[in-house]
Amino acid sequence: MAQVQHLVVDEGGVGQRLDNFLIKVLKGAPKALVYRIIRSGEVRVNKGRASADTKLGLGDTVRVPPLRLAEKDEVKAASVPAREFPVLFEDDYLLAINKPAGVAVHGGSGVSSGVIEQLRRARPQAKFLELVHRLDKETSGILLIAKKRSALVTLQDFFRHRQAHKTYAALVVGDWPDRKKVIDVALHKFLTPEGERRVKAVKEDDDEGRRSITLVKVVQRFDGFSLLDVTIKTGRTHQIRVHLSHEGHAIVGDDKYGDFALNKALARGAVDQPLPGVDRHKLNDGRFERMFLHARYLRLPHPQTGEDIILEAPLPPECNTLLSALSAVSSGAR
């Protein structure tokens, strides 16, 4: 008979997320099952409910419900493909990759595997590989993986204390105003009735809102679009996507907070819906079927030496193709 387990966090688990901790200690349990028992409240940390991203401390007690073999068989873990990703930097402490859009950073609800599982499969000799931070599945660009426990803790401290400076490239709908350089709008994370994670902008005095700050700089203007450099001072879920949409300039291709009719037009290779001041018909350079948000630049101290590392990830080909097409359309309109 399966029994309740009470696991005490030791030094090896300090600073780990609850989901990663359980995936490691519950050998053979499908990841989907781990996330389900967390969401249902069956997992408790120090007798209280916890979320997947709860950080564990030394001596914390984690209650795990009985896991019957029948439960494990409910969700068959798909075989994880071994996959390497374009490497931007690597040494004994840190691996920086250029994550493609459409790949989750880790397995979870509805996702059998992500970057970290595929990397571990591709590098069976690696003793330690853990995500330092996260990117949305739809976002491409720089992603850091720690190769030592000490590096993971140090790097996450850098992110927590804003010593990691991240810049994203974002293509948005409309003409972004030059005067709008700072977005300081609180955000509230919630679940839809279908159980999907969403975020909305709320007033500053909202009890459930968390202050969120985004800096914006216009890089290039097109006919009906603006290419932005976006720097985040706080790392909230979907922060850039919600902040830009809240200002009336949604990210191109954003399937949660974007202009859905425009996204469909771009996926067909055409922009044929009317937009203010826009006169164009076809983009002949192909279809655009992703979100145009790319983590292009990251500067932070090295976890061992303390010296600054500067990482840059070039725009993916499909993004460059779209920009070239928009440039041609804008030139033609003039």
Structural notes for this entry:
The protein has helices spanning 18-25, 31-39, 69-74, 115-122, 149-160, 239-246, 260-267, 317-333, and strands at 5-8, 44-45, 48-49, 61-64, 87-90, 94-99, 130-131, 140-146, 165-173, 182-184, 186-191, 197-202, 213-222, 225-232, 293-301, 308-312. The protein is α+β, with helices and mostly antiparallel strands and 334 residues long. It folds into 3 domains: 5-74, Structural Genomics Hypothetical 15.5 Kd Protein In mrcA-pckA Intergenic Region, Chain A; 87-160, Pseudouridine synthase, CATH 3.30.2350.10; 165-333, Pseudouridine synthase (2-Layer Sandwich), CATH 3.30.2350. Strands 5, 6, 7, 8, 9, 10, 13, 14, 15 and 16 form a 10-stranded mixed beta sheet that branches. The chain has a 4-stranded antiparallel beta sheet with strand order 1-4-2-3, with no helix packed on it. The termini are far apart. The model is unreliable at 69-78 and 272-282 (pLDDT under 50).
Order of helices and strands: EHHEEEHEEHEEHEEEEEEHHEEH
How would you classify the helix and strand content by structural class?
alpha+beta
- Gyration radius from CA atoms, angstroms: 21 Å
- What's the total number of strands? 16
Described by the principal axes of the CA atoms, the overall outline is globular
Proportion of residues in extended strands = 25-35%
CATH topology of the largest domain: Pseudouridine synthase
Q: Tell me the name of the CATH homologous superfamily of the largest domain.
A: Pseudouridine synthase
Tell me the number of structural domains.
3
Mean pLDDT rating: 87
Please bin the fraction of helical residues.
10-25%
Low-confidence segments, given as residue ranges, are: 69-78, 272-282
**What separation lies between the terminal Cα atoms?**
75 Å
